[in-house]
Write a structure and sequence with these properties.
Distance between the termini: 22 Å
Largest sheet: 8 strands, mixed
Bound molecules: phosphoenolpyruvate, magnesium ion
Number of helices: 21
Oligomer: single chain
Radius of gyration: 24 Å
Shape: globular
Strand order of the largest sheet: 1-8-7-3-4-5-6-2
Structural class: alpha/beta
Number of strands: 16
Number of domains: 3
CATH superfamily of the largest domain: Phosphoenolpyruvate-binding domains
Helix content: 40-55%
CATH architecture of the largest domain: Alpha-Beta Barrel
CATH class of the largest domain: Alpha Beta
Strand content: 5-15%
């Protein structure tokens, strides 16, 4: 998508130029005036409202239902016009506006005489407290609840719809954080880039920005001081927001980014370094539709089929036949090519009602991933049967890996079950103990795949969903890179492949560093495949090795990035 460049013949009068730094998420450079989300909705204060007369309560409930329904309908209409993650996020938020639990809690309060808007605020708070206490993925839903609350209250009190205003010229959106529904509803014709003060590389904002191809930087310190209307240069490669940039420099940077984007548009794979080393760039998908989109994006295969994502929200375990049909779609899309299927990674941020214990105090450290098979070995057996059946139908030999493996006996037992079905076994490296014992794990399995999202959370002891700790879970953390390097070395010693399938592989610069550490394939969102593949073509393996060494020697993620960039600058 070409990036509009504002007319700089008459640059706005800016103050002194200064640069704010954050975490780069989506590459590209854009220049434009700042817009900010509209001011927050004014929430009613309970003590300023008198109780409703008994005969007015029925009508008040009708007003509430109409407002909530309108909010849900609007969001559902936007979901219908969107695709992929954006559509999912919008319809989830629409579903929340119609949630029976929420409606019941609001109506109960209205029945007790509370005016509708106050009842909404009060009931929403009950859910916020509950989700916060549950933690993990549930805690992330707090933003959705607050968003739905604000939309319904705005409707009830005649305030404008909260969210992102439609600017007159293409603009750069700056915000503290964005409600998932706001990010999902962004129109790239109006919003050409975005930066947030909070959020990490795996936040909803980051995932959707990646899908929309919007240059994006998160966790930008000092962003709150930049006012709407100021001219900024947002650089999604460097992770910077330059306020009041020099117009000439800014224009050249935008042009360079545009040229890089054109190069990227011409990418058709396979990925090779400048000196001709093949480093397959594969895609992370969740179903057949995603796999077909990945083929179109020139992915060379699937490096991570997240099987649990197709079954979130399901009360019952899907049958072997249903699973086999779903997996076969993915194998078919990449017939004759590599597909790595991951067995159910239920639990923590991806709870499955039929697999996850409901009452764990600390789900991220609980019965998740392969550990679910301790409680219910049949669940894993049936899934492997389904994979074998899908393989038989499509005449393919998929690679199958287990998530959250922590010990050698776990890997050995998993490998035996996979081999018994004629499939190729591997394990994910997501726990430091697995990285430390990579050599021993490789005695049992044929490949390893590093999940940097979880490996960073467990290495740095920082919740991957916490916006406040995004600097700790940054995939450039040198300690994380060291574990990646140790794992890759084990693969080299034993002549077995070691890939990376966490978000780290979606960062073109970091992808080069991973190659330098000895990683043999990369797997990322389909939308990131071309960027990674095109970047690899600009570097030699030796340069990657030197960049990796420099990054390992740094003390923090920013220094690691800068050190690698100094060596790999195109
Ligand atoms: C990871 O942890 O890096 C990974 C790829 O798995 P997920 O993000 O699905 O937990
Ligand atoms: Mg993981």
């Amino acid at each position: 998508m070409p990036t509009p460049v504002p007319d700089l013949a008459q640059p706005p009068t800016a103050g002194d130029s200064f640069v704010l730094t954050g975490t780069p998420v989506v590459p590209g450079a854009v220049l434009g005036p700042v817009i900010r989300p509209s001011e927050g909705v004014r929430l009613p204060v309970a003590s300023e409202q008198s109780a409703l007369a008994e005969d007015a309560r029925g009508a008040e409930k009708e007003l509430f239902r109409a407002a909530a329904e309108l909010v849900a309908t609007r969001l559902a209409a936007r979901a219908a016009a969107a695709t992929g993650v954006s559509a999912e996020v919008l319809s989830t938020t629409a579903g929340l506006a119609r949630d029976r639990g929420l409606w019941g809690a609001v109506e109960q309060r209205i029945d007790a005489g509370t005016p509708a808007a106050v009842a909404v605020v009060d009931a929403a708070q009950q859910f916020v407290d509950m989700f916060t206490a549950l933690g993990g993925l549930m805690a992330e839903r707090v933003t959705d609840v607050r968003d739905v609350r604000d939309r319904i209250v705005a409707e009830l009190t005649g305030q404008g719809e909260p969210g992102i205003p439609t600017p007159e010229v293409p603009s750069v959106l700056l915000a503290d954080d964005l409600a998932p529904a706001d990010t999902a509803g962004l129109d790239p014709a109006h919003v050409i880039g975005l930066a947030t003060r909070l959020g990490g590389t795996t936040s909803h904002t980051a995932i959707i920005a990646r899908q929309l191809g919007l240059p994006c930087v998160v966790a930008v310190e000092g962003l709150e001081d930049v006012r709407a209307g100021e001219l900024v240069l947002l650089d999604g490669d460097a992770g910077t927001v330059t306020v009041g940039p020099d117009p000439g420099d800014a224009r050249s940077r935008v042009e360079a980014a545009r040229a890089a984007a054109e190069l990227l548009a011409r990418y058709t794979g396979p990925a090779l370094t400048r000196d001709g080393s093949a480093v397959p760039v594969l895609a992370n998908v969740q179903d057949g539709a995603g796999a077909r989109a990945a083929v179109a994006a020139h992915a060379e295969g699937v490096g991570l089929l997240r099987t649990e994502l197709a079954f979130l929200g399901r009360a019952q375990e899907p049958t072997v036949e249903e699973q086999a049909a779903g997996y076969a779609e993915v194998f078919e899309a990449f017939a004759g090519r590599k597909v790595v299927l991951r067995t159910l990674d239920a639990g923590s941020d991806k709870p499955l009602a039929f697999a996850t214990p409901p009452d764990e105090a600390n789900p991220a450290l609980g019965v998740r991933g392969l550990r679910v098979a301790r409680r219910d070995p049949g669940l894993l057996e049936r899934q492997l049967d389904a994979v074998a059946e899908a393989a038989r139908r499509t005449s393919s030999v998929p690679w199958v890996m287990a998530p959250m493996v922590a010990t050698v006996p776990e890997a050995a037992a998993f490998a035996a079950a996979v081999r018994a079905r004629g499939l190729v076994p591997g394990v994910m490296i997501e726990v430091p103990s697995a990285a430390l014992h990579a050599d021993r794990l490789l005695a049992h399995v044929d490949f390893l795949s590093i999940g940097t999202n979880d490996l960073s959370q467990y290495t740095l002891a920082a919740d991957r969903l916490s916006a406040d700790l995004a600097d700790l879970t940054d995939p450039w953390q040198p300690a994380l890179l060291q574990l990646v390097g140790m794992t890759a070395d084990a693969g080299t010693r034993q002549g077995k492949p070691v890939g990376v399938c966490g978000e780290a592989a979606a960062d073109p610069l970091l992808a080069c560093v991973l190659v330098g550490l000895g990683i043999t394939s990369l797997s990322c969102a389909a939308s990131a495949v071309a960027g990674v593949g095109a970047r690899l073509a600009t570097v030699s393996v030796d340069e990657c090795r030197r960049a990796a060494e420099a990054a390992l020697g740094a003390d923090d993620p920013q220094a690691a990035r800068a050190a690698a960039r100094a060596i790999l600058a195109a």
